[in-house]
């Protein structure tokens, strides 16, 4: 059946070897570019059309290829699209077949790579809804209902937007559910909706309505708040509520016990917040609600309140007073002998909403509110009632009081004015103190004594008559007429000693055109730090430009002007004063580089100046830095080794790095230090672009190797970036550190902030990263 001939086994082995090499090259190429980079979603528009949608996450593609297979056939190319495409509509489909799609992308060398996973559907897998009804129900809720053709049932995705906003998926409901309540909305706001059938997460129908507008509805405006009522007489009920905004009038509706529906019984003019119902029968229970009316939108109803037309005398003369930081006392006069108790109502300052917080029994004339917070102001009102019969009196007058808690003074500190005088300072954390009491003791075991009493609002005190090298302790207490204990500051130890010794051996190293390092010898063991002062050129006045902590013996001054002469001096300081200055030293920064393609206004200009001036990065022909050029994996290894002066005997090797490979030595130095590693085939790909996320991993490992590990940050610092989820898991920790420490720059496109973790890092970005790392050494 087949023609057979003798096989030359040497030729056969050569063919096998060629196939193996080509396959390895392809595998390496795919490893460099990565696997699928976008999800693929299918929308069944009609039984004759399916739309494909994907994200354009690449910046180096030359186009996209759409592949399709029908049922169990092989994939066939059905379309070739230009770069930056994100959708395609297949109009050559029909009922009864299974269609499977995938997207490939084309690189600059015309090679293609899988870009999405495969997704399958039929043209009847989902059908679009045929109706959608949107109904406002309250000031925070809109109800939706929809239908499908022929009473079909599908999972349904609900999308929503506000005016000029983007569509967002707010819910997906299961089959046989054709309604949804959208709650927690903003009052008096228009929301737009559309719905679609879905099958899983990647297949859906077209939306209903099938446009970008949707079906909109106003959320109702907030209705009248705090509605309450009471019987003025047995034949008249008085209602009261808070005013709405922009209403034209109010409707008052009522129903008596036994009635099923409300009836409008009154009309009230705009901005009027009370109404009397004269048409009631004595000792009868009525339920009321009030609705505001406007021209632009509808209001929600108020809450319903029940009132019985039985007159009850009101309590009077309500008083409120704060008795501690957790208690406010109320008292009133009881004018009625027919109540069964009293209701206590409260609101906080800044709020208009009243709430009933408690009830007390008959003939009670006082109440203590213990659910308050120190320093807050509360408003109260009280009314008599007959419990469970909805019989109420009018409210008392409103009474207000602060919880009279005192907060302790904070940040107690001191400065030494002389060998016998100090100045204490603190933060006043209370708004209701009468004053402050200053106390002192001598020695740890001494007794506290009052040395001064100050008025309210004071935040400093000068104390004289102190001796040198004696240990004093101070504390400050806030007080008022209600509370005179407990609100103490922290204790502060004070010792007047000697000023620190001046530093010696002061010298300066010029590092670059924008940086110098100051070096000195610390001659004191009690300084709190060192002050750095500088002046430029012929300027005669020094200015403080920096400060170090205790025991420091160097300082990096950055952001200087290239080719500029500066003069420096330093001194130590502690609580007792400041040392003499060191000698003054003049220094001139290196002459700045001139670039044909980077001017002084470029965002990374200072970083580029520094790295070039230090000899870490080089300038190309015709003084071109090429700031947007992409750095390769091999180049970055050489830059890191030079920047941090890394030396280590090279260890091991990569299959694609040999003595003839550019940057061979530097790559193996990093490998020996455990900073870089190969893939599963022991390949490093030195000529490939270095991604920003791989850069972050190399940087984090480098700082760890230098015993200067980066501070760890939670992954939440990445949440502000639009492409946060595209960071591979192995790079999340290092990317978080670089973002948290402000080492890596962000990219902004179309008003959104990106990290572009898989994009190649540019030369300017490399300079920026190095510039920020060098300040940590």
TrEMBL record:
Signal peptide as annotated in the record: none
Transmembrane segments: 12-33
Record keywords: Membrane, Repeat, Transmembrane, Transmembrane helix
Source species of the chain: Clostridium thermosuccinogenes
SLH domain sequence ranges: 591-654, 655-713, 718-777
Domain Fibronectin type-III: 36-127, 128-218, 223-313, 314-406, 408-499, 502-592
Source organism superkingdom: Bacteria
The protein, known as: S-layer protein
């Amino acid at each position: 059946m087949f023609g057979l001939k003798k096989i030359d086994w040497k030729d056969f082995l050569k063919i096998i070897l060629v196939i193996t090499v080509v396959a390895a090259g392809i595998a390496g190429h795919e490893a460099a570019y990565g696997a699928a980079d976008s999800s693929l979603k299918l929308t069944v528009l009609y039984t004759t059309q399916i739309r494909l949608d994907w994200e354009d996450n690449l910046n180096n593609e030359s186009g996209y290829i759409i592949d399709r297979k029908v049922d169990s056939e092989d994939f066939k190319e059905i379309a070739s699209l230009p770069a930056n495409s994100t959708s395609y509509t297949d109009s050559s489909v029909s009922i009864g077949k299974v269609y499977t799609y995938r997207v490939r992308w084309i690189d600059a060398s015309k090679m293609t790579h899988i870009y999405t996973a495969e997704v399958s559907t039929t043209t009847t897998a989902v059908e679009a809804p045929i109706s959608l009804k949107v109904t406002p129900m309250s000031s925070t809720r809109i109800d939706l209902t929809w239908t499908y053709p022929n009473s079909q049932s599908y999972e349904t995705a609900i999308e929503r937007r506000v005016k000029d906003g983007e569509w967002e998926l707010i819910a997906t409901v299961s089959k046989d559910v054709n309604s949804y309540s959208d709650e927690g909305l903003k009052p008096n706001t228009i929301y737009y909706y559309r719905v679609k059938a879905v099958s899983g997460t990647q297949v859906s129908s077209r939306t209903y309505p099938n446009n970008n507008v949707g079906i909109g509805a106003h959320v109702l405006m907030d209705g009248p708040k705090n509605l309450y009522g009471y019987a003025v007489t047995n034949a008249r009920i008085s209602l009261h509520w808070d005013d709405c905004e922009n209403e034209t009038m109010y409707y008052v509706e009522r129903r008596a016990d036994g009635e099923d529906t409300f009836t409008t019984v009154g009309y009230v003019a705009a901005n009027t917040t009370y109404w009397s119902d004269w048409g009631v029968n004595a000792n009868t229970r009525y339920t009321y609600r009030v609705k505001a009316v406007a021209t632009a939108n509808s209001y929600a109803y108020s809450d319903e309140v029940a009132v019985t037309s039985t007159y009850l005398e009101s309590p009077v003369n309500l008083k409120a007073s704060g008795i501690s930081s957790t208690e406010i006392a109320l008292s009133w006069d009881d004018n009625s002998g027919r109540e069964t108790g009293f209701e206590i109502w409260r609101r906080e300052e800044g709020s208009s909403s009243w709430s009933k917080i408690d009830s007390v029994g008959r003939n009670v004339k006082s109440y203590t509110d213990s659910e308050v917070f120190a320093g807050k102001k509360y408003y109260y009102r009280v009314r008599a009632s007959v419990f469970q019969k909805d019989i109420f009196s009018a409210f008392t007058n409103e009474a207000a009081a602060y919880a009279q808690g005192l907060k302790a003074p904070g940040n107690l500190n001191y400065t030494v004015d002389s060998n016998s005088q100090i100045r204490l300072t603190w933060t006043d954390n209370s708004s209701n103190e009468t004053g402050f009491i200053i106390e002192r003791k001598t020695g740890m075991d001494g007794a506290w004594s009052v040395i001064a009493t100050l008025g309210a609002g004071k935040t400093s005190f000068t104390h004289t008559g102190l001796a040198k090298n004696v240990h004093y302790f101070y504390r400050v207490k806030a007080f008022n007429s209600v509370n005179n204990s407990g609100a103490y500051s922290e204790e502060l130890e004070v010792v007047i000693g000697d000023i620190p010794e001046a530093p010696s051996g002061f010298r300066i190293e010029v590092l670059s055109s924008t940086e110098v390092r100051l070096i000195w010898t610390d001659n004191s063991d009690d300084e709190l730090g060192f002050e750095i002062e500088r002046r430029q050129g012929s300027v005669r006045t020094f200015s403080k430009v920096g400060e170090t902590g205790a025991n420091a013996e160097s300082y990096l001054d950055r952001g200087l002007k290239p080719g500029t002469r500066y003069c420096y001096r330093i001194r130590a300081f502690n609580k007792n004063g400041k040392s003499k200055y060191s000698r003054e030293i003049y220094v001139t920064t290196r002459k700045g580089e001139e670039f044909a393609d980077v001017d002084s206004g470029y965002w990374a200009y200072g970083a580029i100046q520094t790295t070039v001036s230090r000899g870490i990065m080089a300038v190309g022909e015709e003084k071109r830095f090429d700031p947007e050029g992409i750095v390769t994996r091999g180049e970055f290894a050489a830059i890191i080794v030079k920047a941090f002066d890394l030396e280590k005997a090279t260890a091991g090797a990569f299959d694609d790095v040999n003595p003839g490979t550019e940057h061979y030595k530097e790559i193996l130095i990093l490998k020996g230090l455990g900073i870089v590693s190969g893939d599963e085939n022991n390949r490093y790909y030195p000529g490939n672009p270095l991604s920003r996320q791989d850069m972050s991993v190399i940087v984090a490992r480098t700082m760890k190797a230098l015993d200067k590990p980066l501070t760890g940050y939670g992954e939440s610092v990445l949440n502000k970036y639009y492409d946060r989820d595209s960071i591979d898991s192995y790079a999340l920790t290092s990317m978080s550190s670089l973002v948290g420490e402000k080492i890596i720059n962000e990219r902004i496109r179309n008003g959104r902030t990106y990290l572009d973790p898989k994009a190649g890092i540019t030369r300017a970005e490399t300079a920026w990263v190095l510039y920020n790392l060098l300040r940590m050494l």
